[in-house]
Amino acid sequence: MSVDLAAITHYLDGYLRIAEVGDSDRALNGLQVDNAGEVHRIAAAVDACQVTIDKTTDCGSDFLLVHHGLFWDGVQAIAGRHGRRIRTLLETDTALYAAHIPLDVHPEVGNNAVLAKMLGIRQSDWFGEQYGQAIGLAGSLEVSLDELADRIKVLIYAGHYATETVGVKALAEHLQHRFDIPWEFLHHPTGL
After folding, report:
1. Ramachandran area for residue 80 (φ above 0: left; ψ -120 to 50: alpha; else beta)
2. Is the pTM of the predicted complex or chain greater than 0.90?
């Protein structure tokens, strides 16, 4: 089964409020590279690096959904590693969609909301601001210290990469249910 690329990107743009949520200019949220127009399988990863782009093709996917897209280093020549990434996407007919702050703050599949749910935190209010957008999530949790330690033992060493895997996974799973399209997570900590 395949799904029209335009249908998926249109849906994602609205669902994630791409046009409304503030972010760094380097994030370039939304579709960054298109393909011939059909999506058969989704790969999800935190970063659009050469390894995850190659793994996308290796697992039979033609749509890469990431948190950090191609343009974090700003405007650059289509040469060297940046050029290789773009050439690989074009040569393998792989679309690339990125969502940074819109994914962090999404109330259902966002990194903050999913992490809070995993810990059993009852959401109460957003706080802090970045790019004109409230970005932190505050809530309450009434458990013993032992129970809290048990809940966070999988997150205790969670850094930037680990805490940003949950959003792309939740979003890819959401797309699977919405469009009946399979997905796979590509684990590759880059330290970005």
Report:
1. left
2. yes
Q: Under 8 Å CB-to-CB from 123, ≥6 apart: which residues?
A: 107, 113, 116, 137, 139
Per the DSSP assignment, residues forming a β-bridge with 107 are: none
Helix, strand, coil shares of the chain, percent, nearest 5, are 40, 25, 40
Would you say residue 61 has pLDDT above 90?
yes
What secondary structure does DSSP assign to 44-104, as a single string?
EEEE--HHHHHHHHHTT-SEEEEEE-TTTT-S--S-HHHHHHHHHHHHTT-EEEE-SHHHH
Q: Give CA–CA dist 130/183, Å, rounded.
A: 31
Contact 46, 161 (CB under 8 A): yes
What pLDDT, in 10s, does the model give residues 141-169? 888 888 888 877 775 556 677 789 999 99
- If DSSP codes are grouped into helix, strand and coil, which group holds residue 145? helix
Rounded Cα gap, residues 43 and 56, in angstroms: 6
Q: Which of 101, 109, 106, 115 is nearest to 158 (CA)?
A: 115
